[in-house]
Write a structure and sequence with these properties.
mainly alpha; globular
């Protein structure tokens, strides 16, 4: 489980400081990942569906 919470794992080298908030593109990509993972039928999938819905309610749509 530690490999899931290690922020340095498989992360590209950062040349700029991280923003305090996600960019719109990052938020949409994260929503895609959560929605994909939410298709699994177990407790983690249910949590992914929940957070995908929460993110979708707070982020402008791609069409906006």
């Amino acid at each position: 489980m530690n490999e899931l919470v290690d922020p340095a794992r498989d992360m590209p080298e950062l040349y700029e400081p991280r923003l305090a908030l996600l960019t719109l593109t990052e938020a949409h990509r994260l929503m895609d990942v959560l929605q994909h993972f939410g298709t699994t039928d177990h407790d983690w999938g249910a949590q992914a569906r929940h957070f995908a819905a929460e993110l979708a309610a707070r982020v402008p749509s791609r069409d906006a």
